[in-house]
Amino acid sequence: MASGSATPAQAAAWLARDAVDSLPAGELERKLVSVAEQGRSLRVKLGIDPTAPDLHLGHTVVLRKLQEFQGLGHQVVLIVGDYTARVGDPSGRSQIRPLLTGEQVDANARRFADQAAHVLDVGEVELRFNGEWLDMATHELFALARTTTIAQLLERDDFAKRQAAHEPVSVLELLYPLLQGYDSVAVKADVELGGTDQKFNLLLGRDIQRAYGEEEQAILTMPILPGTDGVRKMSKSLGNEIAVLDRPEQIYAKTLRVPDDALAQWWELLCDEPPSPGLSPRDAKRTLARSLVARFHDEAAAQDAERAFDRVFVDHELPEEIEDASFHAGDGEVHLPALVAELFGMSRSEARRLQEQGGVRIGGAMLSGAELDLAPEMLDGQVLQVGKRRHRRLHRRG
RNA sequence: GGGGGGAUGUCCGAGUGGUUAAAGGAGACGGGCUGUAAACCCGUUGGCUCUGCCUACGCAGGUUCGAAUCCUGCUCCCCCCA
Questions:
Q1: Does the pLDDT at position A117 exceed 90?
Q2: CA of A167 to C1' of B66 (A)
Q3: Is the pLDDT score of A167 beyond 80?
């Protein structure tokens, strides 16, 4: 572990140990030397666009890195991209993002700021919203636009690929990297962090800074955390995320569902210490799951989550806590597909299909596709189970 | 401004007048196996008052006994030339 007494070279090497790129070569170390001489600390920038409402594990990879800088006494500048979220970062995207409304963005931005507190010591963080400076006059935007050429922007992979595939790239998207770069100008960033998919934007930030007569930032890129599918980048829109605010059981269960192939990466990107050697993949995963729950909740919650998980999925018992749900019986029988559809947000046809496939149980007994209408007495007080993980305790109403 | 190409279900992608709710793949979901992993097997994947009915192949009309497939207009996208 590095400490305040480490030399700049040691600190730089330690900070970059798990990064993919630390560019330009030697720059981070030079910055560390230079600020030490000036008697100040580094201004380390991270920008997050609140395009989705919640922070997830993928965000925490970079946030943890930010925290390391913080631990060494540097100034963290967290930029919530309330303004850039309206533009849409094309990084890694194969198509134009749908635009969010101003209200959505504002609501998301506030949530983000709150949630960052789960990962960072926000008391020490300089939190900024980039609408503060990006809501600029047109002539200022023109000045910004003059700093960069089309050729520079088209060097970028995503744009090049989309061009080649005859997919649209809007001028607005082209502008995005400039706006991000301007953030660096506005906060006088010495270092900017990001995922590897941000490399182009981060590097372009240097050009923008130079154009504005500022000193250029060093950049550090972190690996991208795969989602719970083990393949694609973790993101809310792909539904493969574990959110910082997920409940303990969710964090635990989702972690166990991660394919083993991705396990090593998860350990590396999310934990300080590697798993003890000799630990089976299964146990390594369980350990990881516990530690993640403990990180975002606490140790007791981790124990409980594991117990609850084992109860349901290892011992095949009902969960201890089952959400209640009421059903309306009227005088006749209850149409099960309608009830299932209503309870779990699916269509009746879908519910019917699930039942035909043996995915619906009442009181542990699998129902056949013929048992669509049941007497209310057979349901009242019983546990309805759909698939392996959805349960409701039914209560008659009316 | 001119010319050409394209728009199909969650996604990719077949299909150019009739057994097409629409091949195939991916993803997802259910069942089995299991470590809620991987691999593998089986099945499902528009809606519904479900042995049938309704809605669907960019949008709106039209031709036809019958259209995703033909015609007309419109919208959007891409490429080339200027």
A1: no
A2: 37
A3: no
Residue A352 near residue A369, CB atoms below 8 Å: yes
Nucleotide B65 C1' to residue A356 CA (A): 38
Phi and psi of A371, rounded to 5°? -85, 65
Residue A267, CB, less than 7 Å from strand B? Answer: no
CATH number at residue A91: 3.40.50.620
Are both A81 and A189 inside the same structural domain? yes
**pLDDT at residue A85 in the model:** 78
pLDDT of residue A94: 41
Residue A65 has what pLDDT?
Answer: 95
Nucleotide nearest to A259 (CA to C1'): B37
ipTM of the complex as predicted: 0.87
